[in-house]
Structure formats: C-alpha cells, structure tokens
Amino acid sequence: MNSENFSLSEKIVSTSYVRQGSQARRSHEQLIRLLLEQGKCPEEGWSESTVELFLSELAVMDSNNFLGNCGVGEREGRVASSLVARRHYRFKLIHGIGRSGDIAAVQPKAAGSSLLNKLTNSVVLDILKLSGVVASCFVVPLATGMSLTLCFLTLRHRRPKARYIIWPRIDQKSCFKAMITAGFEPVVVENVLEGDELRTDLEAVERKIEELGAENILCVHSTTSCFAPRVPDRLEELSILCAKQNIPHIVNNAYGVQSSKCMHLIQQGARVGRIDAFVQSLDKNFMVPVGGAIIAGFDESFVQEISQMYPGRASASPSLDVLITLLTLGASGYKKLLSERKAESDGAVTQLGSMLFTRQVSGARVIPLGKEQTIGGHTFRGFMSHSDAYPCPYLNAASAVGITREDVTLCMKRLDKCLKTLKKEKNVAKSSSPVLPPCQEDTTGE
C-alpha cells in the first residue's frame, strides 16, 4: 500500500484507523530502509511479519511474478507444486542465484532475487566483522568440504605445477576428501603432543616444504575449529611461513565464527602473514539447515575469482535461510548466542557412547584407542584422536552456538548415570569371574 492507496482507503474506513495502519506499515518500512541503506545486520531482530513483508516485496520484483508475464525461456521460475513455491516465497530464485559465469552476478529478470543475494552477502560480512574479522566474503550453496574444494580448484589456475597440499592432521573426513576431490595429494603432517594437547608441528611443516619444493605445493591447509585434544593450528606462525615461502594458505574455519579465539587467530594470521581464504559452515555457526558455507578472504580479487569458479547457477536456499535467520536474531541476538555458548563451554569407552545415545544425548563423541581408518588410500592410525598414539581414550562434546546451560546440566546428569551403570556392571562381571585359589597357580600358559 502506497500513500495514494491509503488516502483512498480513508473514503471507505475511518481516517483515524487508516492512519494507524499507515503508521504501522511505515515502522516496517523504516527497518527495511535501514537495511537497504546500510547493508548491515539490524541491531535488534525483526518480527516475522516484517521479514515476510520484506521477502514479499522482493519477490514481486522478479519477472515470474509480473502480472501478465509470458515466460518462454528455459528457466522462468516454474514449479509444479504450490507448496514448493510458497517455501521459496515465490521468488524467481527458484531457478537459482547468479549466472553461469559468476555466482554473485545479477540476473536481469530477477531484481528481487539478485537484491536478496547481495544483501545476504553484505549482512554475513557484517557478522564476520562483528565476530572479529574484516574481510570479503560470499555465501555459497555448498557445505564446508566442497567449498574447500572450490578454493583449491581456484588456486590450481594460479599454481598449475603444484601437486601437494600440506595438511596438519585433523581426523575429519570431509576436509581430507576435499583435497583428493580437487585432484591433489595431501601431505599429512602429524601433530605434536604438548601436555594433553595436540598442536601443529611447525618444524615438520618446514621440512616438508623444503623436501617437496615450494613451487610444487598448492597451499598449506590449516584448521581452527576442532575437537579436543587437538587445538587450533598455529595460524600466526603458519601464515608467516606461507608469506615467506610464497605459498597460499587456506583455513578450514568450519565452526569458527562462533569462537572469538578462532576469529582472532585468523585476523592475526592475515595481519602478520598470509591467509588467502577461510571457509566456515552456515549450519554450524548460524543454526540453519545443512548445505551452505561462507567463503571469505582478505584479497577481494581472489574471493571474486573463487565465486567465478563456481560452475553454473546456484541454489538460493542457503542464502535465504541465513538472511531470514540473521534478520530475525539481529546483531544483539547473535551476540547473545555467542556469549551463552562461551559461558557453557567453560563448564568400557565405546559402550559409554552407545549408552549416552540411548539416553537421548546426541553429539557426544567417544574416542577409543587404536582405531584405524583408510581415506583415499591413506590409513590413519588412532583415527578421531588426531594422533597415531594419543595416550588415553576420551569423550568430547561440542559447545556449539545455540547450546544452553540446561543442555549441559542434563548431559552431565545422564553421563553420571552412565558412568555409575558401567562401574556397577564392571563390579558384577569381576565378582562372577572364576578366581583360582592362591595355592593353585595356573601353569597352562594360556
């Protein structure tokens, strides 16, 4: 409703009532105006009615929603199910965002969808700044592993002779497969045990660079967010080494946006050395469905190069999901989630994991000793412990964004019950096992 329509409405309904409605709409429009003007995440979250009004206004800007439109192209936002159309707010983004040459390109027939895509990237960039890193970025409809692959494939054009990727070990399949899928040979560098922590072996990384030759190395592939006992890689030292040797540096920052420590390491690494790109998951950091990631970097031209490497158009679902989420939370709401996550994080082995799962405790990982896993022809001993010979089995859990104090308390209560049950079963088994009398030694040798 524009001002003319409101004036006409006053001939049908009481003027005072219409003006109240007009003022209410203006309050929604003011929020939308600020978003378009600043391109930042609003400080306070929007109501669902404001979000829906905004999305509806954008959708009518797409040609498939033009009154009397006659679409004769191969892509005209056609869908067979009205339920699917409503799920996507009837945007032309039903047929994707970007163009065949660039995932960030504007679509001539889809002004609303293109605007949504640009705003999503702008709002996400603002959240990265809020989390401590100033960089360029874009949202890509790929999960973390494939997003890393896209970064490696982009680097191939810059370093056509390179065959190897140096990778301080982290026992997570996706990031390892990302290197193999891109056609490179991962060079696994074992971590060193310092106390009970597994840390980057910088000397081993340097030796591998000297052994293979810097010109044959595509990049160093480091990691920030990880499960204990592995800690984030020594990003500052690796960044300095990469700058010195003129080797690109790609960082797997999958869970890292929610961690001020991880984001600080990335910003510092870029300040003192070289970080070409860092990748973070949408679902892990923003509580949206799996399927999207943020690819970011400090060289805007390289980030643009990566976006242009994406073949064809792209699904808009991850962009739509994260934009709705951030507009609803607002910057203050997201900061509150981060502070709550940080507060909560301060607070027979395989059988224990099973017992926790049956008691509806999901996400806890039990790491036994001696497990082997072969991925892409490389066998990892002690898989999931990030080391060939970690000294003891253990259990860990992720203090991820969205976790509550109640979750932690309930988990600890159920863990305590599981441990007591295990102890009781062990005592019963011990008391029922045959014991030879002291005077009768076992001499069978079995």
Automatic annotation (TrEMBL):
- The entry's tRNA-binding residues are R271, R359, K424
Q: Where does pyridoxal 5'-phosphate bind?
A: R75
GO CC terms of this entry? cytoplasm
Source domain of life is Eukaryota
Catalytic activity annotation:
O-phospho-L-seryl-tRNA(Sec) + selenophosphate + H2O = L-selenocysteinyl-tRNA(Sec) + 2 phosphate
Family matches, as InterPro entries: PyrdxlP-dep_Trfase, PyrdxlP-dep_Trfase_major, Sec-tRNA_Se_transferase, SepSecS/SepCysS
- Site residues by UniProt (May act as a substrate filter by repelling compounds with a negatively charged alpha-carboxylate): E74
Q: Keywords on this record?
A: Cytoplasm, Protein biosynthesis, Pyridoxal phosphate, RNA-binding, Selenium, Transferase, tRNA-binding
Pathway(s) served: Aminoacyl-tRNA biosynthesis; selenocysteinyl-tRNA(Sec) biosynthesis; selenocysteinyl-tRNA(Sec) from L-seryl-tRNA(Sec) (archaeal/eukaryal route): step 2/2
Q: Which Gene Ontology molecular function entries are recorded, alphabetically?
A: O-phosphoseryl-tRNA(Sec) selenium transferase activity; tRNA binding
Pfam families found in the cross-reference section = SepSecS
The record's subcellular location field reads: Cytoplasm
Q: Binding of substrate: at which residues?
A: R99, S100, Q107, R313
**Might you name a Gene Ontology BP term for this protein?**
conversion of seryl-tRNAsec to selenocys-tRNAsec
N6-(pyridoxal phosphate)lysine is found on: K284
* Main localization, broad class: cytoplasm
EC assignment: the record states 2.9.1.2
Q: What cofactor is needed?
A: pyridoxal 5'-phosphate
- Function text: Converts O-phosphoseryl-tRNA(Sec) to selenocysteinyl-tRNA(Sec) required for selenoprotein biosynthesis.
Q: Name the protein family.
A: Belongs to the SepSecS family.
Which PANTHER family does the UniProt entry name for this protein? O-PHOSPHOSERYL-TRNA(SEC) SELENIUM TRANSFERASE (PTHR12944:SF2), SOLUBLE LIVER ANTIGEN/LIVER PANCREAS ANTIGEN (PTHR12944)
Query: Subunit details for this protein?
Result: Homotetramer formed by a catalytic dimer and a non-catalytic dimer serving as a binding platform that orients tRNASec for catalysis. Each tetramer binds the CCA ends of two tRNAs which point to the active sites of the catalytic dimer.
Q: What is this protein called?
A: O-phosphoseryl-tRNA(Sec) selenium transferase
Query: Which species is this record about?
Result: Dissostichus mawsoni
